[in-house]
Amino acid sequence: MHSFISFHKTSKDMELPEFFTNPFDYRPHPYCVQAAEQLQEKLGEPDSESKGKMYGVLIVKNKSGELGFLSAYSGNEQSQFSDIPFVPQVFEITNPNGFFRKGEAELNQMNEAIHKAEHSEEYKQLLEDLKAEKEQAEILVNQAKLALKQAKKERKAKRKQAEQEAEHEHILEQLIRESQREKSQFNQIKRACKQKVEAAKAKLDAYQKEVNELKQARKKRSAQLQQQIFDSYLFLNAEGSVKSASDIFRETDAKVPPAGAGDCCAPKLMQYAYQNELEPIAVAEFWWGKSPKKEIRKHAYFYPACKSKCEPILGHMLKGLKLEKTAKTVKKLQIEVLYEDDAIAIIHKPSGLLSVPGKEEKESVYSQAKTIYPQAEEPLIVHRLDMATSGIMLIAKTKTAHEILQKQFLDKSIQKRYVAILDAIVPHEEGSIKLPLRVDLEDRPRQLVCFEYGKEAFTKWKVVERSIHQSKVHFYPITGRTHQLRVHAAHADGLNTAIVGDELYGQKAERLLLHAEEIRFVHPTTNKAMTYVCPAKFDLEKD
């Protein structure tokens, strides 16, 4: 088992976990941290310009009871570290003698044939011929129209003059025949021009039909090849059953596996363990190197497995293992009413409570407000806070109050101040961040910085205090995008340091240290300016 690595050192005080790591919600077990450090030592410090990558470690026990770990990297390209025994791909898509490379070669040939056909001299000539025939037809028809118009004008003058002559009727008959003859000639010119244009178009259409048939053949072959790939990714689980990527994703809303499904760290690690009769103990993945431009990935930070690619696959692969359950607060999270009158209520939302009901979790600010104020008119919720964020929220008791407050949010006249503890020192005192955001379609609910499709996101900020290794910051969001403050804090083009406890963009802790501390608005019925402050219950760590 070439990929099994025994630990360089072990700790007698370190206990093995009772349950296997939940790959989507975990803190890395000490054994995973130790394995990651050994792997990172082999990887060496990354080049500042080189693209970063996700790596993973899986703690396993072999039949002899020896404890060790497996390592993997995300992707299907060949690793540059030939001396590190990474586990192999689930399906060796890069095998030069495999069906994928042969199919890829076929597609490349088809692409070349299509490119050649679309850029050939023959195709250019056919396009030019059609263009020339259309232009010539337009000229001839316009000339004929002008001639017809002029002849009509002349006949009108002759008709008027003929009224004074004896052979009036005979002249009128001649003029009618002349008009009919000229119209017939005009129609002949139009038909001749149309026939020439249609003949040129028919030649072009015949050529384009051949090109389209090539494209359809390529599309069909590409679909066949992709399906063959999906069918070839066969995943084991702890119960010994096997499922292909096609079968796994057929049971999901997506129906079809996304590109790269099965090439992430966790599926590779689990597959190798099952194939080699190794007992999986704990898993962890970390980013090593430069962060991508859109995503937020911090060097050496641990991250959960991705949702779109890994969640369906691991849902199958983890069957038969005793899985660590997501930690849930035993104590019921309850909103606290800070102020209320006939029109509104100001409440404090605790971290961990949804603003509105989710697909699975119904308990929320909305459900609790509805219980507290059963006579209040829907929809109650004026704005939202992330589940992990605590702080002030406004509740509208009447539809009129809701409409007025909503308008204030839309015209950005409501002012909010958040307080956050950042996981590093912010060197500057204050500033602003403009980074447009959109959802990461492959890993919801993560957000991406995207200048092409993202929505405008604008935040002002100010450092209010620092410790040796943390910064306390006030955020003033001008827009209200999902995860705006979290992304603007963590992104390299923002403050480049995540909020403490941000499991999506930083490192997991007891909670996210982000709190909506102050709100300023105009009361919907009294029209008086109101300011309400609810101090955060967290602060900088003591030095």
TrEMBL record:
InterPro entries: PsdUridine_synth_cat_dom_sf, PsdUridine_synth_RluA-like_CS, PsdUridine_synth_RsuA/RluA, RluA_PseudoU_synthase
Record key words, sorted: Coiled coil
Keyword Cell cycle among record annotations: no
Chain segments annotated as coiled-coil in the UniProt record: 116-227
Keyword Cell inner membrane: no
Domain Pseudouridine synthase RsuA/RluA-like, chain residue ranges per copy: 345-491
PANTHER family cross-referenced by the UniProt entry: MITOCHONDRIAL RNA PSEUDOURIDINE SYNTHASE (PTHR21600), RIBOSOMAL LARGE SUBUNIT PSEUDOURIDINE SYNTHASE A (PTHR21600:SF89)
Protein's recorded name: RluA family pseudouridine synthase
